C-alpha cells in the first residue's frame, strides 16, 4: 500500500509512539492508585475497563478538540479536579470493610480512572493529533497503542506500590505536579496573571507535588497510628 511506503507515515508513527511513551506515565500512576485496594483479579479488570473507557473518551475528543480548547478555564478546572482525585486516591483504605471494597470499588475505580484521564488527556490528544499530521487513521491508531503501554505501566507501578508504600505518596505528588501544570497553562489564567504566569510555571507544580506527597505521608502515618491504637 502507498501509505506504508510513505516515509512521512513512518516518521509520524514513530513520533506518536514516542509521545505515548512520554505521556503514558501519568495515566499509569492514576490507574495504579485507583485499583491498589482491590483484590488481584479485580485490579486487572479495573485497569482494562478503566483504560478502555478512557481511550473511547480520547477518540471522542478528536472530533471536538477545537471546541474543547476554546472553553474558558477548562484546564484550570481540570487541574482542580485532578487535585481532588489525588487526595481521594491517597486516602488509606485500611478502615473500610472488605465487603464494601469488593462490592462497589471496581466500578468506582473505573470511574476514577476515566475522570482523571479526561482531565489529563486534552494536551495528550493535541500532541498526538499534531504528530499524526492530519491523518485520522494514524491518529486513532496512535491513541489505541497507548492501551498496552498504560495497562503494562500501571501493573508495574501497582506492584511497586504494594512493595514500597512511599511510592503511593510519590504518585499523589506526581498528580499534583500535573494539576499545577494544567492550571498555570490555562489561557484565561495566563491572561489574568500576565508575566506572573511565567514566574509560577515551575514553582506551582513543584509546590503541589510537595504538598500532596506530604499529605500522603501524613495520611499513612495517621492510619498506622490508628491501627496501633485499635490493636492495643
Structure described in brief:
By secondary structure, this protein is mostly helical. It contains 10 helices and no strands. Helix 3 packs antiparallel against helix 4 (98-132).
Q: What is the radius of gyration computed over CA atoms, rounded to a whole number of angstroms?
A: 19 Å
E-strand count: 0
Share of helix, binned:
over 70%
Number of helices: 10
Q: Per the principal axes of the C-alpha atoms, what is the gross shape?
A: globular
In whole angstroms, how far apart are the ends? Answer: 72 Å
Describe the structure.
By secondary structure, the chain is mainly α. It has one domain. It contains 10 helices and no strands.
Topology (elements, then pairings):
Layout: H1 7-35, H2 40-68, H3 74-90, H4 98-132, H5 136-144, H6 146-163, H7 166-185, H8 187-193, H9 195-199, H10 203-231
Keywords:
about 230 residues; mainly alpha; about 85% helix; globular
Amino acid at each position: 500500500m502507498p501509505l506504508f511506503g510513505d516515509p512521512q507515515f513512518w516518521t509520524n508513527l514513530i513520533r506518536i509512539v514516542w509521545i505515548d511513551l512520554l505521556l503514558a506515565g501519568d495515566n499509569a500512576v492514576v490507574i495504579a492508585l485507583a485499583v491498589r485496594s482491590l483484590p488481584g483479579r479485580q485490579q486487572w479488570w479495573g485497569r482494562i475497563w478503566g483504560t478502555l473507557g478512557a481511550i473511547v473518551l480520547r477518540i471522542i475528543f478528536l472530533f471536538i478538540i477545537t471546541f474543547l480548547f476554546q472553553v474558558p478555564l477548562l484546564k484550570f478546572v481540570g487541574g482542580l479536579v485532578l487535585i481532588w482525585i489525588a487526595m481521594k486516591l491517597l486516602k488509606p483504605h485500611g478502615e473500610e470493610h472488605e465487603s464494601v471494597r469488593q462490592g462497589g470499588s471496581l466500578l468506582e475505580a473505573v470511574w476514577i480512572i476515566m475522570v482523571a484521564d479526561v482531565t489529563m488527556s486534552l494536551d495528550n490528544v493535541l500532541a498526538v493529533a499534531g504528530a499524526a499530521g492530519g491523518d485520522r487513521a494514524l491518529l486513532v491508531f496512535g491513541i489505541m497503542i497507548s492501551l498496552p503501554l498504560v495497562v503494562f505501566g500501571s501493573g508495574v507501578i501497582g506492584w511497586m506500590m504494594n512493595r514500597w508504600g512511599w511510592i503511593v505518596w510519590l504518585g499523589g505528588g506526581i498528580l499534583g505536579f500535573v494539576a499545577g501544570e494544567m492550571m498555570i497553562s490555562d489561557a484565561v489564567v495566563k491572561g489574568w496573571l500576565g508575566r506572573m504566569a511565567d514566574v509560577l510555571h515551575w514553582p506551582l507544580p513543584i509546590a503541589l507535588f510537595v504538598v500532596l506527597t506530604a499529605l500522603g505521608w501524613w495520611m499513612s502515618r495517621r492510619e498506622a497510628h490508628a491501627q496501633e491504637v485499635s490493636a492495643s
